[in-house]
Amino acid sequence: MITVLSGGTGTPKLLQGLKEIVDPSDLTIIVNTLENDYFSGVYVSADIDTVLYTMADMINDEFWYGVKDDTFITHERLEELGCGELLRIGDIDRATKIQKTQLMQKYGLKKACEIQAENMGIKSKIIPMSEEQSDIKIITDMGELEFHDFLIKHQSEPKVLDLKFSKVSPAEGIIEAIKNSEAVIIGPSNPITSISPILSLEDVRDALKETYTIAVSPIIGSDAVSGPASKFMEALGVEVSSVGVASLYQDFLDNFVIDTQDSNLESQLNQIVNKVTITNTIMNSLDAKKNLAQIIIDSIP
């Protein structure tokens, strides 16, 4: 079994490649829940839904959010009625979120995800990092902002001074999944708001020390491939580079995958991690995704 730690953008691209070369039933995906919240009366777990849609071949891979070819009749009607939404939620996507909200009231988030994954024909196990509601605040030069206000309303433009997120307990089965895995892959998701929340869960870092762990850098040069990771790293005093990312995973990391454009950092990274793999990490086609996935799988001892 292979376990993947995932956020909602970079890692799902890698998952598209992994599920082509690995039996999906051998994949367990632990997904960030830090940014989950209620919008328009429904529970929005953006990263979980992105992983679900990716594994079900439904993802809108232009935005890495929502369902491809979705319609927005409800969203547009709400706008007409003066009930504008911060998130642009499609109709099929909204139905998924309504179902999840109802299932959670009866079973909790983990079971709700299991039911939805089964309904979508997904053979992989998808586990939310926690059943508990998280809270994150972005401290900016405009004041304290909610995560989605910063990301969507303000388009990630304010200067980030600090971040705060609440401590939550790991969902049942997470530690066992990591310990029982042949390897753990940390995908190229935001290391601060997507991966660090998973790593902050009790016993996760200790479990990773016992399991072969590979991480793919989401940084090329001095900037993130996508999203506001660079701003968050700067705010926390972490060097915006593959070296900075590796330093966040240093205590458990066995193999670090970086892009060929960062090959000049190999000797510096070798002081942090035993093995550095240099390859193309820009996943702009299915072949590129499969090639990266294959290189990662082949590196597992």
Instruction: Work out the strand percent.
Output: 15-25%
Q: Which strand order does the major sheet show?
A: 5-2-1-9-10-13-14
Contiguous low-pLDDT stretches (5 residues minimum) are none
Cα shape: globular
Oligomer kind: single chain
- Annotation, overall tally of beta strands: 14
CATH homologous superfamily caption of the largest domain: CofD-like domains
CATH top level label of the largest domain: Alpha Beta
Q: Tell me the radius of gyration.
A: 18 Å
CATH topology assignment of the largest domain: Rossmann fold
Give a short account of the largest sheet: 7 strands, parallel
Number of helices: 13
* Amino-to-carboxy terminus distance: 14 Å
**What is the mean predicted local confidence, pLDDT?**
94
Q: What fraction, in percent, of the residue positions are helical?
A: 25-40%
Structural class: alpha/beta
CATH architecture of the largest domain: 3-Layer(aba) Sandwich
N to C succession of SSEs = EHEEEHHHHEEEHEHEHHEEEHHEHEH
How many structurally independent domains? 3
